[in-house]
């Protein structure tokens, strides 16, 4: 056994030298073969070349020498498997690359064909279809909005006349049997951008329908026949049809302003006024100063009459009404419109159609000019009672001022 040890070590060294030499020769052959193999079909010549893993000199030497052939064949077989795997992987990658190259011109051809069929979409700068569709949709939407706006203007363009009846019933008192503390007629004319306000003195001497046509103070019409009788008396006095009305008491007025969260108003006069219970000098106002008024303060502002006249009071009442409408027309007040409308219907006997509400809203939104008129009258004592007798000539001129056309403009 000892005699074979030197022989086996020399054999092993010789084998290693031959393997190293074979690897170097093999590497040189592969480099030369790869440099010549530029076409896909020539790649298979490399496969046959790679199969020659072991030189013939090595095999002849191994066959001549007594050694363990089992271990040698195992090593040579594993090397062959690795080379075959590398060969298959290289061939697969080259095949995949060739397929990708063949696909590219096809895609390019398809894109060119689509451009030829649809020249409008050749580039994003040349009006793509999506942009055209969006523009057409925007134009249609704008056209629809303009049509709706025109329809709303036509719907709300016809003027209407509105009567405000302010009762003198104190807080907690019933409206039945009370008198009208103030009477104002508001005429909304959208196409003329005009709001005309006519104040009627409470002691105006005029026929009362519910008193069989007997002449009396117009304030008594509400005590005898309520709002209907008052409406007829005002309509006969001004020779103007009354389209809608509202009855305002102290309680309902305070409740409405408080429900919408108060109003912002600039005072047009300097004065002090009592509160709803009659307590004097509870509220003070300065001309040109803006106030945020709750219901009680707004009532005191609108009912003051001691330092001026009925005309000035009617004007302040219209300022409060317009402030309420302006507050509800703001985006922050839209949510309060349904509740405010319900409150006025139930507590103030509001008689106003949808069209008339649209007309009033349009007139206010257009920042219409507000004109104020007052019935000229002469105070005269009859049977020991003072009445305000209207000036017939001035009254006829006022009637002409209130005359309008069907299209919503003033005749004069």
UniProtKB/TrEMBL annotation:
- Keywords, alphabetical: Membrane, Transmembrane, Transmembrane helix
Entry-linked Gene3D superfamilies: LCP protein (3.40.630.190)
Basic and acidic residues composition bias: residue spans: 14-34, 60-71
Q: Where is the composition biased (Polar residues)?
A: 111-121
* Cited Pfam families: LytR_cpsA_psr
Region Disordered: start-end pairs:
1-80, 92-132
Q: Residues in domain Cell envelope-related transcriptional attenuator?
A: 179-328
Which InterPro entries does the UniProt record give?
Answer: LytR/CpsA/Psr_CW_biosynth, LytR_CpsA_psr
Name the source's superkingdom. Bacteria
- Annotated family: Belongs to the LytR/CpsA/Psr (LCP) family.
* NCBIfam families on file: lytR_cpsA_psr
Q: What is this protein's name?
A: LCP family protein
